[in-house]
Amino acid sequence: MKKSMIATLLASTAIAGSAFAGDLVINFDDTNPAPKEGFENAVAAFKAANPDVNVTVNFTDREAHKTAIRNFLSADAPDITAWYPGNRMAPFVDAGQFEDISDLWASDPNLSQNFEAIKPTMTRDGKQWGVPYSYYQWGVYYRADIFEQYGIGEPSTWDEMLSACDTLKQNGVTPFTIGTKYLWTAAGVFDYLNLRTNGYDVHNALTAGEIKYTDDRIKATFENWKTMLDRCSFVDNHATMSWQDAIAPFASGDAAMYVMGNFSVASYKDAGLTDDQIDYFPFPEITPGLARAEEAPADALFIPANAKNKEDARKFLSFIAQPEIQSAWNKTLGQLPPNSKAEVDSGDKFIMQGMQTVSTAAGLAQFYDRDAPAEMAKAGMEGFQEFMVKPERMDAILKRLDSIQEKVYK
Amino acid sequence: MKKYRQNQQCSAPWVFLAPALLFFTIYVIFPIFRSIWISFYEWDGIGQATWVGLANYVELLDDDRFYTSLKNNIIWLVCFMLAVPAGLLVALFLNQTIWGMRFYKSMFFFPFVISQVVVGLIFSWFYNPNFGIVGKVWEYFGAVPPSILGDERFVTYGIIFAGLWPQVAYCMILYLTGLNNISSDQIEAGRLDGAKGWRMLRYVVLPQLWPATFLAIVVTVIGALRSFDMIATMTRGGPWGSSNVLSFFMYETALSEYGFRMGYGSAIAVVLFMIMLVFIGYFLWVMYQDERRT
Predict the structure, then answer these.
(1) Beta pairing class for A127-128 and A138-143
(2) pLDDT in tens, A189-231
(3) CA distances from A334 to A62, A143, A366, B232 (A)
(4) Is A294 within 8 Å of chain B by CB?
(5) Would the CB atoms of A389 and B47 count as touching at under 8 Å?
(6) Could you tell me if A97 lies within 8 Å of chain B, comparing CB atoms?
(7) What's the pLDDT at B1?
(8) Consecutive H or E run containing A268
(9) B142 touches chain A (CB under 8 A)
(10) Interface of B with A in 109-138 (CB under 8 A)
(11) From CA B133, how far away is CA A188, in angstroms rounded?
């Protein structure tokens, strides 16, 4: 008993602690079957190409990783860690805990040529800090069978969507499902309304704290949201539901649309829906002629500043940036490869439509809670949730967000 | 020789106290002062900490979320006190000698044994207007079920009600042990003097239960102030922060995904500590008085 305890203790310290030259320690943050498999395959391919490097992978689940990273970056840094780009990487970049890998972006032709679209989100202070391995589209997932039953086509403009909602409501179907208990789902709806009402630059200016929430443009976004709440109502009690809970009315046919990210498709299928019953359309145009920007959050790998084996870590990052690796990885994941030369899974209609949507977009937003600083994001999303239940409080909410904005971006 | 024995008598208590004192210092005293110290800084937990003086406290005074949390803490304190009379009632009811009483007692005590997280989860299902028992009852009477956890007016009371379930069980067990120690001759004497029912309870039984009541009040006050698990599992402070309390607000600000404002979180913790200190000070004073009397 005692012996085995010592053995595990030794083993765990060996994993966490000592990394000699040739040892590469990676902390990955997803234990779900598909993401884990995709990552393990990429590691296996790297091992096959670099037999001299001894790769060790530590898996943690996403939520635990978000807390753990703050400890291990300074106390016991791996050579590579998973994290998010955009404003989410800002605290670590500013604290000097991520390695500047601009040299890799400049010297690796694959990285410098095939990642143009996503490079800005990996950049802070004019330097690049990580390599993205996957991203996914957001948009409206809908019940194709219900739409067909009531003769509704895919709406491409605001008016078309509102009248689709009217038809659905007349037939006793709630147009949208959502679960806002964990808040971020409401931010998805807000982001799209804002991107379609005001465009990409206003989204960035707002999340960067350059324009106020009481600005007329943001007010216009909220007015559109009010219209959406009136004519395209959402399911009741969404404030008590998680995004998974909100799938139940979608699967039962009580609700017909869901503003969501592509990762949710697997859950629809788990809930018993088939490929024929669900489909996707990009969020419809609101302001005519406005350049279309999309939400497309990316996942990336970073090198901690305290990593012991930065040389092999760079080798690994440039390896997983290759088109073939990114194709295979994202095929397993059911997501999009950031590398523009990579192939997408043509057997998956959501991926094909997503590729079509994001590759023609004028700009890619990360997401409200990744583009805005954490404290602002939290307050903002609480405001969105409150607005969705009590739209009459709009002015009070916006004023409150202004005062928080003032504190956060000082 | 004599001196050695004297010395031994003086030092022995300290030797036995040493481990407890050591750990108490490391895990309680030191963190308290450290938190107070951190509350004067602006610090994200990884970067450089900057001294901001009282700025965190000034910001706190201007923060709506703080007042919501404070208000909810007060509601918790007041409503949670119901656990004391309710526990007494159940204990009086269960203080009978009939066959199988031990089984009933343990069934009543059961909610205190299960984890608060589980209680929270079960109640959030109860409260679900779509498939929960609350929804079914309302529908039976033809009414539209309220969304208890989704409505800012009901949410705090809904969580407190869930919290009362195990807390009543706790108070009940305290009273049951108290009832065991009631002297039967005083009851007899009271009966001879014609006391029964409410008067018997009020003037004969309750005074003898004072130690149990005191303990029940202490654990209930502390339970109300550190209500965290229920809120974390049932609403996470929502909808839009309306069911937040200081302990969860502190956690959210300092340690959650959108937080990592260690200084601000510590300032909240210090305020919560001060509130607790008032009660703890009072309890210690009462205990000291009691001890002096005996």
Answers:
(1) unpaired
(2) 999 999 999 988 899 889 888 899 999 999 999 999 999 998 8
(3) 18, 20, 18, 32
(4) no
(5) no
(6) yes
(7) 57
(8) helix A265-270
(9) no
(10) 124, 127-130
(11) 32
Residues A66 and A76 in one domain: yes
Backbone angles phi, psi at A29, to 5 degrees: -115, 25
B48 contacts on A by Cβ (under 8 Å): 95
Is the separation of the CB atoms in A101 and A128 below 8 Å? yes
Q: What is the ipTM of this complex?
A: 0.75
Helix axes A158-170, A216-231, angle to 10 degrees: 30
Interface contact flag, A236 B129, Cβ < 8 Å? yes
Is A240 near chain B, with CB under 8 Å? Answer: yes
**H helices of A17-126, where?**
33-49, 62-75, 90-94, 102-107, 109-114
Distance CA B245, CA B133 (A): 27
Question: B42: which chain A residues are within 8 Å (Cβ-Cβ)?
Answer: none
Q: How far is B131 from chain A (nearest CA, A)?
A: 11
A260 in the same domain as A342: no
Q: Tokens for A401? A: 């967000």
CATH number of the domain enclosing A351: 3.40.190.10
A252 touches chain B (CB under 8 A): no
Structure tokens at A39: 């990552």
Residues A254 and A303 in one domain: no
Q: How far apart are CA A239 and CA A237, in angstroms?
A: 5
A43 and A129 belong to one structural domain? yes
A80 SS3 class: strand
- Check CB contact under 8 Å for B259 and A369: no
pLDDT recorded at residue A10 = 43
* Of the candidate ranges A374-383, B3-12, B85-94, the one whose mean pLDDT is the lowest: B3-12
Distance from CA of A240 to the nearest CA of B (A): 5
* Interface contact flag, A237 B255, Cβ < 8 Å: no
- Closest by Cα among A370, A313, A305, A314 to A66: A370
Rounded percentage of chain B residues whose pLDDT exceeds 70: 99
Coil, helix or strand for A258? Answer: strand
User: Any CB–CB contact under 8 A between A383 and chain B?
Assistant: yes
Cα A194 to the chain's mean position, in Å? Answer: 17
Gap from B29 CA to chain A (nearest CA, Å):
24
Q: Identify whether residues A216 and A71 lie together within a single domain.
A: no
Residue A378 touches chain B, beta carbons under 8 Å: yes
Adjacent-strand bridge partners of B150: none
CA B141 to each of CA B133, B134, B135, B138, B153: distance values in angstroms, whole numbers, following the listed order: 13, 11, 10, 5, 22
> Tens digit of pLDDT for each residue in A276-331?
899 999 999 998 888 888 888 888 999 999 888 888 999 899 899 898 899 888 88
- pLDDT of A94: 85
Query: CB B147 to CB A237 under 8 A?
Result: yes
The predicted-structure confidence for B155-167, as pLDDT tens digits, reads as follows: 899 999 999 999 9
CA distance A292 to chain B (A): 29
- Cα B36 to Cα A71: distance, rounded to the nearest angstrom: 22
Q: Give the residue among A52, A213, A24, A379 at the shortest CA–CA distance from B261.
A: A379
User: In this predicted structure, which of A147-156, A312-321, B199-208, B214-223 has the lowest mean pLDDT?
Assistant: B199-208
Domain span at A131: 2-136+298-364
Smallest Cβ–Cβ distance between A378 and the set B48, B64, B258 belongs to B258
Please list every residue in chain B whose beta carbon sits closer than 8 Å to the beta carbon of residue A400: 64
> Would you identify the CATH topology of the domain B63-293?
MetI-like fold (1.10.3720)
Chain B residue at shortest CA distance from A184 = B258
Per the prediction, chain A carries an average pLDDT of 86
